[in-house]
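Quick one: co-fold with acetyl coenzyme *A.
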Amino acid sequence: MADDLRKGLEGVLVAESELSSIDGDAGRLIYRGYAIEDLARGASYEEVLYLLWHGHLPDEGELAEFTEAMAAEREVDDDLLETVRTLADAGEKPMAALRTAVSMLSATEPEADADAADLEASLRKGRRITAKIPTVLAAFERFRLGEEPVEPDPDLGLAANFLYMLTGEEPDEVAAETFDQALILHADHGLNASTFTAMVIGSTMADLYGAVTGGIGALSGPLHGGANQDVMEVLMEIDESDLDPRDWVEQATDEGRRIPGFGHRVYNVKDPRAKILQERSRELAENGESKWYEITTTIEEYLTGEKGLVKKGIAPNVDFYSGSVYYQLGIPIDMYTPIFAMSRAGGWIAHVLEYQEDNRLIRPRARYTGPGDEAFVPLEER
Ligand code: ACO
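Sure, here it is.
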């Protein structure tokens, strides 16, 4: 029996999927056969969403129609905005606020009664959820700052529009492209913890609002999406300490602390997404503050070289460089994980819909290790 038990489901195959594949030894990631590097270089987040949801890259007409339909779904209703304002005023964490807001979004879903097996209706729901998440997050940030939300601009792509709603100013081309690329890189990643969570919920034929809300809960933890915020906090701790990053890391590892942004259940080498984000971080550093890029590369060189972490299969993951990229784009630190959710919602939806097409309720078992034969004692005798 003990041999059957796979803690953390490590290496357990539970489904077939055409969506994304990771080669953890080669450091390669593909979405439906396309290398992540090519998609990051040549596509937009909307194109990638279309690819994940519809099975092929869109032609110009398909993309225009899809982008327009997504942009038309960006607005959220006033009741929801008031709830977001209340959460912001109460000091709620952005991931928790997003989780609440996505759950509440289902109240205004025009096709709420559609069967989860109705793929076309589910795709429209998926579009609504994915289009509205940036609006919710930007509004939350505006409320926290004591400002009013900025209306979405349907002429901007999803990435540029988010930055616009966040600051009230249209981002420059570099910022918009960099952010769009970050969204592409986070859109899907096999059966990671949050995607699996969404799939488990979807396997009950619950609707997408439940699945995405669950995905947000799973993503919020520090072992998963929460690590990008932790990385930036570490970089700031190092900066404030005036310690050489190598000494800081040495001390931290001696204390048994894990270095956020390092290690991955599937990759044994550097995550290909980290390589792309490192390049973006370097470019942003050239025209702005260079210290974050310098600290991250120093840590990476030290841990992977001198400390030999890569030999143990612990290398930089996607979160290691995304923090400094977002920081240089002026995004508040506690919004990094919600941004991950903004992008990954596309992947959660793709996996849930793919799984539901040939659904089987996900229902594993636990090996019972409790007592076998206890005599019941009435309450008054305990
Ligand atoms: N720093 C130092 N040592 C590490 C790190 C790290 N970041 N990650 C793993 N290790 C060590 C562990 O201490 C352990 O060593 P031991 O065998 O001597 O005890 C060994 O590597 C294996 O670690 P596990 O926890 O068994 O590996 P697992 O596959 O379960 O963990 C995880 C993967 C959770 C991502 C882990 O690497 C971690 O905690 N990293 C830091 C948090 C992080 O960056 N998370 C983001 C992951 S990517 C994503 O979700 C988007």
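If it helps, The CA atoms of residues 46 and 371 lie 53 Å apart.
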